[in-house]
């Protein structure tokens, strides 16, 4: 359903990246808040999530362009 609304390549990559950031916020921020994980760890997790979701979004956008 989302692919019909997101016609641009950058829009698809951004959509997948946003989904990954929502997952990050749901899990990792609670670790930082409730369990006291260090800020450096959370920054590393954030960067890992961003890079992973941009790569995944790029692959998905390339596949969806062909469909």
Number of helices: 3
Strand content: under 5%
- The count of DSSP E runs of length 2 or more, i.e. the number of strands, is 0
**Model regions low in confidence, pLDDT < 50 over at least 5 residues:** none
Order of helices and strands: HHH
Query: What class, by secondary structure content?
Result: mainly alpha
- Number of self-contained structural domains: 1
- Can you summarize the main beta sheet? none
Mean pLDDT: 87
How much helical structure, as a percent, in the residues? over 70%
First-last Cα distance: 14 Å
Q: Categorize the overall geometry.
A: elongated
* Radius of gyration from the alpha-carbon trace, in angstroms: 14 Å
Written account of the structure:
By secondary structure, this protein is mostly helical. It has one domain (2-66). The chain is 88% helix and 0% strand. It has three helices and no strands. It has helices at 2-5, 9-35, 39-66. α2 (9-35) runs antiparallel to α3 (39-66). The longest helix has 28 residues, at 39-66. The radius of gyration is 14 Å and the shape is elongated. The mean pLDDT is 87.
